[in-house]
């Protein structure tokens, strides 16, 4: 199968398996796992923060960060299309009593600054939840995976900081953003006080994410990780793969972006499919099928029959993600399969 559902389907490389087998480990809850400690130092350095914390998933990274930033009953302002708002099981509300306050996202993955400003300037009236946090996402998954401009991130940070609020960045795919914006992860993270990023997406490690910020913030997030059940003991086994991911898998993400562009171009030529534009395309292609849900279901089933898996986005849109397991040959085969499946699903 050509699996374009997500970059989370990537398999660990041979070097990762080797590093995992040889990893030096200890009890990380005692702070004694040398491999985890090394990964946390590497992560902090790469995003330009003081300290890092290894957690099992991107969802826990964002949740631990939100819990560390926000008191119960306070509000976190984030994009209406933010992964944290829509795809993380409402954890911040369920476990932290945090009022997630959605702000309109533009197609470019940006927050509507007027709407954000309106939220931030509500009078300190007893009716309103006090503000606790502003959150950003880069790359922006639900906005067709686009990288978000640094100028926008700086504008959001200025607004938040003027109101003495911290900024958290869901940088699950921050290295994709760095490549698309021709900058570094540290420059992207500079607008944010705290940042999370994932090892088990395009970087192909089997498990794990990092949350980084000041030493004092990470100490609070560490307590939240323990409360959430994320204290992992001999976690150096999986951290070892994460170190290999950071050492060897970042630069090659550019190849995924080239393949996504080729995929977008190929799908764009097929009658019945409309590819969403992405201001700064990374490794995702979102496209819609003409003819509504029934034709879309038929198209996706036809594609699966032809050996290609894609993800659903609502009832008639889809997402295809390029990654380490997808080369140019797979892209060409997927486009050919899509043309044939579209002919069957949308043809007269
Ligand atoms: N995204 C997954 C699915 O949940 C949709 C995917 O396939 O793209 N932030 C962002 C921006 C993400 O895209 C994801 C995962 C997460 C956080 C959560 O990471 P995990 O899956 O490690 O909890």
Write the SSE topology.
Elements: E1 2-3, H1 14-22, H2 34-46, E2 51-55, H3 58-69, E3 75-79, H4 83-86, H5 91-96, E4 99-103, H6 113-120, E5 131-137, H7 150-162, E6 167-170, H8 174-180, H9 185-189, E7 194-198, E8 209-213, H10 215-227, H11 236-248, H12 253-268, E9 273-275, E10 284-289, H13 292-305, E11 308-309, E12 311-313, E13 317-321, H14 328-346
Parallel strand pairs: 1-11, 3-4, 3-5, 5-6, 6-7
Antiparallel strand pairs: 2-8, 7-8, 9-10, 10-13, 12-13
Helix pairs in contact: 1-11, 2-11, 3-10, 6-7, 12-14, 13-14
Keywords for this structure?
alpha/beta; 348 residues; 13 strands; 44% helix; 16% strand; Aspartate Aminotransferase, domain 1; 2 domains; 7-stranded mixed β-sheet; binds ligand TLP
Summary of the model, kept short:
The chain has 348 residues and is of the alpha/beta class. It is built from 14 helices and 13 strands.
**In CATH terms, what is the fold-level topology of the largest domain?**
Aspartate Aminotransferase, domain 2
The ordered string of helix (H) and strand (E) elements is EHHEHEHHEHEHEHHEEHHHEEHEEEH
Query: Which CATH top level class of the largest domain fits?
Result: Alpha Beta
The distinct ligands, each listed once, are: ligand TLP
Shape, principal axes of CA atoms: globular
């Amino acid at each position: 199968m050509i699996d374009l559902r997500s970059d989370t389907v990537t398999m660990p490389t041979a070097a990762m398996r080797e590093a995992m087998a040889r990893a030096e480990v200890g009890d990380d809850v005692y702070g004694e796992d040398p491999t985890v400690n090394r990964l946390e130092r590497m992560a902090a350095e790469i995003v330009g923060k003081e300290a890092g914390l290894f957690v099992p998933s991107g969802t826990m990274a964002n949740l631990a960060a939100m819990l560390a930033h926000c008191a119960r009953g306070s509000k976190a302002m984030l994009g209406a299309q933010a992964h944290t708002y829509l795809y993380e099981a409402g954890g911040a509300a369920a476990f932290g009593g945090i009022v997630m306050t959605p702000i309109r996202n533009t197609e470019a993955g940006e927050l509507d600054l007027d709407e954000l400003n309106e939220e931030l300037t509500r009078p300190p009236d007893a009716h309103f939840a006090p503000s606790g946090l502003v959150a950003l996402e880069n790359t922006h998954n639900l906005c067709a995976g686009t990288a978000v401009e640094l100028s926008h991130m700086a504008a959001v940070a200025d607004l938040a900081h003027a109101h003495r609020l911290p900024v958290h960045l869901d940088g699950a795919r921050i290295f994709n953003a760095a490549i698309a914006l021709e900058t570094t992860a540290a420059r992207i993270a500079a607008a944010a006080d705290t940042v999370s990023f994932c090892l088990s997406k395009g970087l192909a490690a089997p498990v794990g994410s990092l949350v980084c910020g000041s030493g004092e913030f990470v100490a609070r997030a560490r307590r939240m990780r323990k409360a959430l059940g994320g204290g992992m003991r001999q976690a150096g086994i999986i951290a070892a793969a994460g170190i290999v991911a950071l050492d060897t898998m970042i630069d090659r993400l550019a190849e995924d972006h080239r393949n996504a562009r080729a995929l977008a171009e190929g799908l764009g030529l097929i009658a019945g499919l409309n590819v969403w534009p992405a201001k700064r395309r990374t490794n995702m292609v979102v496209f819609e099928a003409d003819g509504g849900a029934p034709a879309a279901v038929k198209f996706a089933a036809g594609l699966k029959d032809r050996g290609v898996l894609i993800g659903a986005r609502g009832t008639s849109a889809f997402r295809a993600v390029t990654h380490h397991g997808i080369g140019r040959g797979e892209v060409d085969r997927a486009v050919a399969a899509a043309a044939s499946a579209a002919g069957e699903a949308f043809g007269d």
